[in-house]
Amino acid sequence: MFKPPLPHRRDVLRAAACAAVLASCRAATDPTTAIAAAARPNEPAVTLRDACRAARIRHGAARDHFIDPEDPMLDRLMARECDVVTPENGGKWAVFEPQEGRFDWRRMDASVELARSIGATPNWHTIIWQHMGMPPYMKLPAERQAELGIPENAYFSPEGTLGPDTVWPRFADTVAQVKERYGDVFYRIDVANEVFFWETADSHPQEQDRHGFRRGMWWVAAGGAERGPEWLDPFFHQTRAAFPNAKLVINEFGIELNEGWQQRKRAYLLDWLTGAVKRGVPIDGVGLQSHLIAGKPYDREGMRKFLRSVDRLGLAVHITELDVDEARLPRSWSREEKDRTLALLVGQYLTDVVNHSRLEELVWWHLRSDLNFLAREHADLDPRPSPYDRQSRPLPMYEAAVQALRNKTRAG
């Protein structure tokens, strides 16, 4: 299994100097730095991967070859920055098995091949997705909706045949098919994704159980109503049996804000993690998607407390989908003001994670801002949710991330 090399003294010194030599992020004053910047105008002298390796953290990003352009500049950027590669969509059930027993591996193959070609390791995102990313046959029969009293239509389909009799053989078979095709090559596997409820102003109490789980298709089929928090356990055991070397995580979003529903979700997640460790569930860490929101209150103290609690459980933290949504910032702000705000938030968040948990992986939801889904959703803003711009030039967010990692390196 790949382990980031122990930092050479030279590498540590480079990491310590990184803020001064990121010539693409701010004006350089040293003549030698200016010469290096002129030679490689789009490349920082110290990469985020350098800083992560010095801190014994894997660095990487998501990519989807069927959405992203065939872009040699992007290929070079991924090769320079990534120790891990996550298929943005290729590892989702609806993509690689759209019909039962009929597989389309092209998108997942592309991500695995990219990782291999640049000397990185692929991740598998994701097996279980509680409310999205599933083909119609992997949903509950539509005629059961009234009986179950679940108002969310996304869990049901007229073609749905998911239930107690089909959930386990299908899960086991699909895990076995992925193992047969790729072997035990994945660094991290998101066994369960977004299984806890996302409260909104229109939420109905019947949409979640008393443990905070979505009463979704997997929850119903695996007996969540009867088994309580233990309904997830067999999925981890089955995945561990097939992939003994992978880091198995539960992957969640929406726990970083100082808002009631996110604080409740954070508590539900920690409660499940605590119970899972006690029950001997083979889980290696928690995946924090980390879709940060600028312009909303980040709960620094609450997150620090959560991260310390996770660390006491002996679990690692994996940042799996880092980006920043700037849509709530004032439109009157300049690009420079927005960039400073995004950088400050990323710096605060990463500082908290590296100083209060055992961070093992830092993955961006795309390295380049123009490829992030937020750029498609808010095209009128030309947002910068990722550490590089569309020309593969590092942004202030990049330097803030390096600074946070540099502080971790100094702390040993």
Calculate Rg over CA atoms. 21 Å
Cα distance, first to last residue? 23 Å
- H/E order of the elements? HHHHEHEHHEEEHEHEHHHEHEEHEHEHH
Shape: globular
Mean pLDDT: 90
Write the layout of secondary structure elements.
Layout: H1 9-16, H2 18-21, H3 31-39, H4 48-54, E1 58-63, H5 72-81, E2 84-87, H6 93-96, H7 106-117, E3 121-122, E4 128-129, E5 140-141, H8 145-148, E6 156-157, H9 167-182, E7 188-193, H10 217-221, H11 224-227, H12 233-242, E8 247-252, H13 260-279, E9 285-288, E10 291-293, H14 300-312, E11 316-325, H15 335-356, E12 359-364, H16 373-377, H17 396-411
List keywords for this structure.
412 residues, 17 helices, 10-stranded parallel β-sheet, disordered N terminus, alpha/beta
Characterise the protein shown here.
The protein is an alpha/beta fold and 412 residues long. It has 17 helices and twelve strands. Strands 1, 2, 3, 4, 7, 8, 9, 10, 11 and 12 form a ten-stranded parallel β-sheet that branches. It has a two-stranded parallel ribbon with strand order 5-6. β8 (247-252), α13 (260-279) and β9 form a beta-alpha-beta unit. α13 packs parallel to α14 (300-312), α14 packs parallel to α15 and α15 (335-356) runs parallel beside α17 (396-411). The longest helix is centred in the last third of the chain and has 22 residues, at 335-356. It is globular. It starts with 8 loop residues before the first helix and ends with a helix. Mean pLDDT is 90; it is low at 1-39.
